[in-house]
Amino acid sequence: MLYPRANEWYNDRQQDKLLKEAEQAYSEMVPTSQPDLEKPYAEVTQLLTEESADEEPVHPSAQPSPEIKVGGKIIGIIQIDRIDLKLPVLEGATKSNMKHAAAHMKETAPLGEVGNAAIAAHRSRTTGRLFNRLNEVKIGDTISIKTSTEEYQYKVYDISVVEPTDVSVLNGDNMNKILTLITCDPLVNPTHRLIIHAKLS
């Protein structure tokens, strides 16, 4: 007769203990609207600068540079009709991924979801290569992202040129599905970043 009561008392004590631990842990948590993007964004803008500095005209007889192995998973295809752009999008804005493709910053929102999904690519000096012609995009243009399961149509609503340290371009909210494209500006000896913001229509 005493066993059920003792067992109940023990279970209540364990529950109270767990509840106190949970309350303490949750009270110590600092609410954040988004992950800290300052460091990954700084790394991406540094990669953009380095590639621009490296991209000098190559003499036809010069040896090709060693191949950089692409390590990212293909998560989609980006297409912008105005500038005849069609590129694979790889997961992770690394040096190897950005050498031959556009790269999704994995620290930002997934493509097609609420938040701000950022894609970076080099602005190659070769006409039409990578984000070379991104400066020709206009407000109202459509940016299409095709994944293995969906096709998203984003409409451009803002174009800006910002300092390389301006991480506010990655800000999102809890309502809109935003796409941000990032590249260098100007084309030669870039000092700033060209930012295209589009919203899922």
3D structure, described in words:
It contains three helices and eight strands. The protein has 201 residues and is of the alpha+beta class. 27% of the residues are buried. About 11% of the residues have low confidence. Its EC number is 3.4.22.-.
SSE blueprint and pairings:
Blueprint: H1 2-28, H2 38-54, E1 74-80, E2 85-91, H3 95-100, E3 102-104, E4 115-120, E5 142-146, E6 151-162, E7 177-185, E8 192-200
Parallel strand pairs: 2-3, 4-7
Antiparallel strand pairs: 1-2, 1-5, 3-4, 5-6, 6-8, 7-8
User: Structural class per helix/strand content?
Assistant: alpha+beta
Order of strands across the main sheet = 1-2-3-4-7-8-6-5
> What is Rg?
23 Å
Helix content: 10-25%
- Tell me the strand percentage band: 25-35%
In DSSP terms (H or I, runs of 4 or more residues), the helix count works out at 3
The low-pLDDT segments are 26-33, 56-69
The first-to-last residue Cα distance is 66 Å
Task: Give a quick account of the main beta sheet: strands, pairing sense, barrel closure.
Answer: 8 strands, mixed, barrel
State mean pLDDT (0 to 100 scale).
81
Shape: elongated
What is the H-and-E element order? HHEEHEEEEEE
Number of strands: 8
